[in-house]
Design a protein that fits this description.
This protein is an all-alpha fold. It contains ten helices and no strands.
Length: 213
């Protein structure tokens, strides 16, 4: 059977080349290396809070940082999954993790009001330092998530970019939080959670330009 070559089809496929499929375990390796390197960097630059290492911090310190780590890992898992789209690719885990973390700033605001203080009293001597430090500590994870999304083919780019930003903010705030000596719910609930929201917004607004395919 003779086939007539189609020049249009030929022009479309002449530059195509096979690529290696994305492997989820490699994505996890990238994410975990980013977490470990960020914690190590914070430890070397800021030093870890010795009272927390000795178990003498307030319980909310461990609760907040534990939830931030879980949120960061759940959001990173969503990014790794969304980079390789599939039918029925639901991302419920990071949604529940976000809801759990959101309880902490809500508690901080309610306890401040219940104590008869103004919202302005949530500011303290380390407020802006912790906010900016948490965001700076998110840069490595932000870069890792961006790189993975660029390698993949995310269809729900808006959702993928949002979770990438949240993963970076949560992991960065967790890593920096290990060095912060303030363990009140008011401080942790506002200034250690704010980087997550800000990085999520940045991921949603900035990453589409970097992950477009």
């Amino acid at each position: 059977m003779n086939r007539v070559p189609n020049p249009l089809i030929a022009s479309l496929v002449e530059d195509l080349a096979p690529v290696a499929p994305l492997k989820r375990r490699n994505g996890w390796l990238v994410a975990l290396v980013a977490v470990g390197a960020t914690v190590l960097g914070v430890g070397l630059y800021e030093g870890l809070w010795q009272a927390a290492l000795a178990g003498n911090a307030a319980p909310i310190f461990f609760v907040t940082n534990g939830l931030l780590l879980l949120l960061g890992l759940a959001a990173a898992a969503a990014v790794l999954s969304l980079a390789s789209p599939a039918v029925g690719n639901r991302q419920d885990a990071p949604k529940w993790a976000t809801a759990m973390v959101a309880i902490i700033p809500l508690t901080a605001v309610l306890t401040t009001i219940a104590a008869g203080h103004a919202i302005a009293d949530l500011f303290d001597s380390r407020s802006m330092y912790c906010l900016t430090s948490g965001m700076l500590a998110s840069l490595l994870t932000f870069a890792a998530m961006t790189w993975w999304l660029r390698r993949g083919a995310p269809v729900s780019t808006g959702v993928a970019n949002l979770w990438a930003g949240i993963a970076a903010g949560a992991i960065g705030s967790f890593a920096y939080g290990l060095s912060c000596p303030i363990d009140s719910v008011e401080h942790l609930g506002v200034w250690h959670i704010a980087p997550v929201a800000l990085c999520g917004a940045l991921g949603r607004m900035v990453l589409p330009r970097l992950t477009r395919w």
